[in-house]
Predict the 3D structure of the following.
Amino acid sequence: MCTTGLFAEIDALGLSYSELNQRVRIAVESGARRLVLRNVAGQRYIGTNLYGCADRQGLSGLLLEIHGTPGNDLGAFLDGPTIVVYGNAMDGTGNTMTSGRIVIHGRAGDITGLSARGGEIFVRDSVGYRTGVHMKQYQGNRPVIVIGGTSQDFLGEYMAGGIIILLGLHLKANEPHACNRLCSGMHGGAVFVRGTLRHGSLGHGVSVQPLNADDRQLVAVYVSRYAELFGADADSIMNASFTKLVPATGRPYKQLYAY
Amino acid sequence: MDLVSLLKLNNPFGDDKRHAACAIFGMMNVSGELMPGEQVFAAMNNMHERGNGLGAGFAVYGLYPHMRDYYALHVMFTDVRGKTAAEELLRKSFVLEGSEPIPTRKTPGISAEPLLWRYFLAPLDTSLGEDGEQDLLMDMVLRLNTEVPDTFVFSCGKNMGVFKGVGYPDQIAHFYRLEDYSGYIWTAHSRFPTNSHAWWGGAHPFCLVDWSVVHNGEISSYGTNRAFLETLGYRCTLFTDTEVMAYAVDLLMRRQKMTPELFAKVVAPPFWEEIDAMAEPERTLHTALRVTYAGLLMNGPFAVVIANGEQMIALTDRIRLRPLTVAVRGDIFYVSSEEAAIRFVCPGVDAVWTPKGGVPVVGRLGLIPKPEHASDNVGVCVTACGGYRDAAQS
Amino acid sequence: MPRKASDFGIRSNRLPEYAVDRDYELCIGCGVCIRQCSFDVHYLDEDHDTVRSRSELCVGCHRCSALCPTRALAIKPNPAQYRAHGSWSGEHVKDINLQAETGGVVLTGSGNDKRAPVYWDNLLINASQVTNPSIDPLREPMELRTHLGARLDAVNIQAGSLDSRLPPTIPISTPIVFSALSYGAVSFQVQLALAQAAQELGTLWNTGEGGFHPRLREYGSNTIVQVASGRFGVDLDYLNSARMVEIKIGQGAKPGIGGHLAGEKVSKDVSATRMIPEGTDAISPAPQHDIYSIEDLRMLVFALKEATNYKVPVSVKIAAVHNAPAIASGMVRAGADVIAIDGFRGGTGAAPKVIRDNVGLPIEFALAAVDQRLRDEGIRNRVSIIAGGGVRNAADVVKAIALGADAVYVGTAALIAIGCTLCQKCYSGKCNWGIATQDPYLAKRVNPDIARRRLVNLVKGWSHEIKEMLGGMGINAIESLRSNRSQLRGIGLTAEELSILGVKPAGG
């Protein structure tokens, strides 16, 4: 490991996840604010163990750059830092995340953003199953997931808050999104879909709406961030039809019980 | 081991079944070119965290080219008297063209290994045809495993073999000297059983006449699947989900000649809602499969890699509750529980994707699988700051 | 809002469960009963200036009867019951009617009230006579301190000093821990009383899955925080402000079932604690979507250890189910430091009745089987076991420890100490005793200071009784009772039941 002032580089080759994460923690404690992790190959929980090792400002200014393939639960419980992955991420990226940003220059696996309560996740390409499952929002904290490609099934399952933007940039003309059972059990938040959905691919209790001016403005903000991060053209992305998916009711199960 | 002691050895606490979770991996060169196992060992080592050292194994196809016309049998004997009895029984129906110990070596962490032996067999009756020979062999394996004391056949098939035991994958590979072998298909498994009383036969892969299965997950419909298969004469002796999966493979793909795609429609069928929305004749076909093989719906989380001499199949349950990533690079088809393991051994894949639940990805000799969507075909981004350097290259 | 017969244009046929018996010679018409009943049973008949009752609304909580200044009220089972039938009980008939009227899932609260065998009652405790002395705990040392957490297989000693890093453990002064009661299911006052009582007693309380209220964080060193499928209020502060983190996989009252806190109960304060918007439903999915297998459990266990820098033990709580021994063995291998097992008589704020009464196992069997399995596999010493789900008194605690527990979880008993009368209407949000409610008018009926004193008294009383029983056995440290099944005998049990419990028959 070499630590120079605010910059540190760690070679992850052959390190277990606990060894790697401990080195990251020590580097941050020693003042490093930009860390480059090289040769990452499946190590889990990167960015999870940083509680209390710098002040709020320090953690919010922290940048972890990952080269390779980080393991599951990348940035689980993340609160503040930015993680950039030059490659694909596996399952559980941003699990129960509070704040910060995760940028994936590639694809992300299943349950991306599970139970996230804040922060932003940008995925250049597609995502696996159950992305954004049970995301929620509270007051100023609203998690956002932007997906450049498409998604596999159960996107936004149980969703209770936050925003998912699904751009479908890699789909062929008129090719619908791959996802089935979209937003099953959704009771909060919104999913914005660019492009078309397959007939019958929505879960129960979802309402399909056009975007109003505020929605378009909101989507445009995140699309321009996506474009900036991955070198895409925001205007041409926005110049397409979007659909908004919201819960038909915020209380889908209130009439389920008898007593 | 007779059946009673096998039950006791395999399921000492009389549980409904053994629970386990795992890492699985497979690679196939669809051109049939033989490959050493080093990538497989390195990939399994990369997924060390997914196992707990209580079982690992490998299936290799293209293993015995010089004996490719004979059925290779890998047998564990917990006592040498089993060997005498087993050979006596074998000779009633087969010619023993070869008989030798499986080469092993002392390996730290590996203990209590049984006597490991391999045979190369040809049926005495040469008029049976392929199906008849396979049924004869199947019947023989079942008898050896349930009637002959201290004997357990853990691999049988042509030009293939399974190597497995209690340990981590690197230990098992070292123990069996697997660096000495090559094959065009390798599948591998590392186990995380909930019990410590692991025994050698309980490790994966499971193998029945050419077909092998490695499996991750827990099949909640185990009791139903087992009842269905036992009605058809299979005997579940190992109390694992993998055993019922292996019998389902034998029943549907070997005996009933189903394609992997149809097999998937049985064990991981579409939901009725989806079937109802199908056009004819698909709707009738899918209805027939679900109604006829209701007892073989494998309900609950699973990911499997199934192989025989012709193909390697990757499949998950219908709502993909277990992870599975596939990749291709040239003629090589990879399957893994974790993408990192594939990239660790093959940084520059042509395409990598996670298959849809219930949809098999099949590599066949001469046919490399293709990604489902153009968007699956996502290579690794090269960054402005000098690019991505993978562990295997550095 | 439950479904009602009137939603379907149907008139209800159900008979009232309770009859309100008002002695008009004693009733002074003061109206206390009217003010106390949130179910609107009592009302003033202004035409006749008389207090009257609507029996059909009564839930049998006895609040009115307990507070009536002249003892004029008695709540009795309604004498007008359905015709007796050996197969179709009145409860069956009532539930069928309810579902015929509404098409809904029958909801209930509290623990299983069926006559399933309570095996504690079939176990008898030993005492010393002649061959070894019994001990008088009032005047001789008697230790109840227990450490919860993982243990090493052995310690290294180098040159006379310890050369091993011990995993984090939590000393508790008595083997009684308050079990998970989430904010939202119970009122803030109840949680405050539990937290303060735990601190005063030197034991732990458990936030449940409803978040950790900022005003309770000062009790962090006596707090277990839960990470459940809803992940309500879970962030790094939450995880790092507690003494132990518990992954909740299941609950004895409703194994395999998720939860659903109705929006009506998500008050401003509950919303802030759970970190969800006010008035929205809080849905806990049935599974944790990052745990679909045993190796996934390992992944979350170590995510929590990484998130807390390996400073606190991680507990995993499961409902007692058929494969509990194999599952528990896997949990140990997955890195759990504590295993909590909740039997099927455990309580709940809300559960489908068909689940509460039919799914799971009695804690006695599950505990004995798990303890035995972990011993057979040589890994029992690596973990602590907390058993819960129907522990009613000090004798049950002693029996649980002798069957293999390190400590017990008590929930229902603690609520009874605060005032609960087991009316089983916890889900309604109208708890007249101020316990399972977020209505400020009702919640203030629990005075946290009095509730704390009642909890402390209860646990002190039990602890003293435990010491008396230990002394009787000639044991002066609680660890000598753990898995000491020779101190138990079974009565009225079959050979198979005795074998699972690992105890000999009485007289044997």
Observations:
- Chain C has 15 helices and 23 strands.
- Chain C has a mean pLDDT of 94.
